[in-house]
Amino acid sequence: MSNSPGTSRTTRRAIHLAAHFPGVNNTTVWSAPPTPQAPQVSRPGSAGPTAERSATRQSAFGSQIDFSSFTHLARTAERGLFDFFFLAEGLRLREHQGRIHDLDVVGRPEAITVLSALAAVTEHLGLAATVNATFNEPYELARRLASLDHLSGGRAAWNVVTSSDAFTGENFRRGGFLDRADRYTRAAEFVAAARELWDSWPPGVERGRTGGATGSFAHHGQHFDIEGRFSVPRSPQGHPVVIQAGDSGEGREFAAATADVVFTRHGTLEAGREFYADVKGRLAAYGRRPDDLKIMPGVTFVLGDTAAEAQEKAAEIRRQQISPQTALLTLEQVWGVDLSRYDPDGPLPDIEPDYEAQLSQGRVRQADPRAIVASWRALAKEKGLSIRQTVIEATGRQSFIGTPEAVADELDTFVQTDAADGFILIPHLTPGGLDDFVKRVVPLLQERGSFRTRYTGSTLRAHLGLAQPLGEDTAA
Ligand SMILES: Cc1cc2nc3c(=O)[nH]c(=O)nc-3n(C[C@H](O)[C@H](O)[C@H](O)COP(=O)(O)O)c2cc1C
After folding, report:
1. For a designed S-S bond to 283, which of 288, 318, 356, 462 qualifies (C-beta 3.0 to 4.6 A apart)?
2. Band of the pLDDT at 247, cuts 50, 70, 90?
3. Pocket lining: 182 vs ligand 1, CB cutoff 6 Å
4. 259 CA distance to ligand 1 middle (Å)
5. How much is the pLDDT for 186?
6. Which domain holds residue 328?
7. pLDDT at 23
């Protein structure tokens, strides 16, 4: 097999792979295998499109959050020798015109609970939970993560996210929200406090030797003023792995100072290299080496026996992801007005958007709607696209499409040429979406010496090649 361009360095770099459990956002399609004429639910009028689609998805995928779905994907990832299994978090179901948003209809079970159950049916696989730093407390979360680390023999990871909006805050006792500017100061102090708690039990404390300072902590800061004794002995990893997933300058700085892994959206070679250089370049200021932080973009893949077949499958998946009604819902989020009377196969609405309106609540609209409207209008005009075709073309984020050989080659090129340290793979199907990748792509990566052929360590830190925090023996 030929080497990829730029792979002339003497040692090949090891690729790190993780599996993202799909289920929300329209990455996930809901029937397998993709068929050319997948049945589409017609958009109802006043009954509300979201409600109807919710019903459709729930009946088609009632088992989506069954434990068997989680175990299938986790076991596949472990068979593929992946570093970890990843669960996202949504603390408030997003809403569209007062109904549960189309993308959140499968619900959001709590990640650490699911991972604790998976710890019992897996042996090596890391278990990563996304947990918000705004609406939690260090003592409670440090305790849950240390417990997961114990239960799993050193496989726990925490993806620290910082969503801080008032809509989400309504779900919580402390309510309200955090000033956006404070989201990372709180997150940084949260992680620091959690690490103080994890360090409060020195390594090697024997059962019964609980005198002295064991478990004592005192953290007095801007966001947390806590003092007491931590209830969980030091866990196998010392510190569960910390993942970061925010993209602002502050987010990148937080990652450079604090995180072990970054989950990024920069999934093209050029954007990946830029991001990689930027974030790795920030590490030295914190006395850290480039290898201390792994950069792992979240990516999708579509495999085919030929390049043409893969492209065809990818196009069909896009059509399934953006059904006629999803196209209209997506457009309504941007336009801010009810567009239910428009034909998804007709042209973009010529009415002006209402940029102040809030049809959707929660993290559904990411970029500046004015810029989106302008670019979608230009795209539709240039290519003569309908509403649905425009949304399909403009919102597509399919990363690696091709034969297993081509996909293995591309993934390897990313890692050997400093665009990533590995990938968080987001399959399109639940729960079988990773099966083909593990069967057909993993062996090719192993053949070229870029991916492990067995687990050599037992903890997630070992899989990722991260140092083990030593902790101090303070229990005099
Ligand atoms: C790849 C990626 C995945 C994310 N996943 C989640 C998630 O599952 N739950 C969540 O509440 N926020 C998630 N976020 C949001 C971020 O953690 C962060 O809260 C938000 O992006 C604000 O930070 P920023 O301004 O630095 O981007 C994700 C962000 C990125 C880039």
Report:
1. 288
2. confident
3. no
4. 14
5. 94
6. 311-395
7. 66
Please tell me whether 130 is known to bind a ligand.
yes
**Number of independent structural domains in the chain:** 2
Between CA 49 and CA 47 the distance in angstroms is 7
Please work out whether the CB of residue 89 comes within 6 Å of at least one atom of ligand 1: yes
- Find out whether the beta carbon of 22 lies less than 6 Å from any atom of ligand 1: no
pLDDT tens digits along 148-206 = 999 999 999 999 998 878 888 888 876 667 888 888 999 999 999 999 999 999 887 75
Cα(89) to ligand 1 centroid in Å equals 9
Q: Count of residues for the chain? A: 476
Same domain, 352 and 425: no
**CB proximity list for 437: less than 8 A, separation 6 or greater:** 80, 301, 303, 425, 427
Q: Is 184 annotated as contributing to ligand binding?
A: yes
Residue pair 46/98 in contact (Cβ under 8 Å)? The answer is no
| 164 in the same domain as 68 | yes
Contact of 15 with 424, CB cutoff 8 Å: no
Tell whether 228 and 277 lie within a shared domain.
yes
* Residue to mutate, 163, 167, 252, 295, ligand 1, most ligand atoms under 8 Å from C-beta: 163
**Structural domain includes residue 226:** yes
**Mode of pairing for the β-strands spanning 360-361 and 241-244:** unpaired
Asked whether 264 and 295 are in contact (CB, 8 A), the reply is yes
Please tell me whether residues 296 and 380 are part of one structural domain.
no
pLDDT at 8 over 80: no
For residue 180, the CA-to-ligand 1 centroid distance in Å is: 13
Among the three residues 372, 395, 418, which one is the final residue of a domain in this structure?
Answer: 395
Would 433 be classed as within a structural domain?
yes
Q: Is 69 annotated as a binding residue?
A: no
242 C-alpha to ligand 1 centroid (Å): 14
Total Cβ atoms within 10 A of residue 205: 18
Whether residue 135 sits in one domain with residue 221: yes
What gap in Å lies between CA 244 and CA 73, rounded to an integer? 23
Q: Which atom of ligand 1 is nearest to the CA of 91?
A: 11
161: Cβ below 6 Å to ligand 1? yes
Taking the model in full, what pTM does it have?
0.87
Question: Which H or E run contains 68?
Answer: helix 67-79
| 162 Cβ closer than 6 Å to some ligand 1 atom | yes
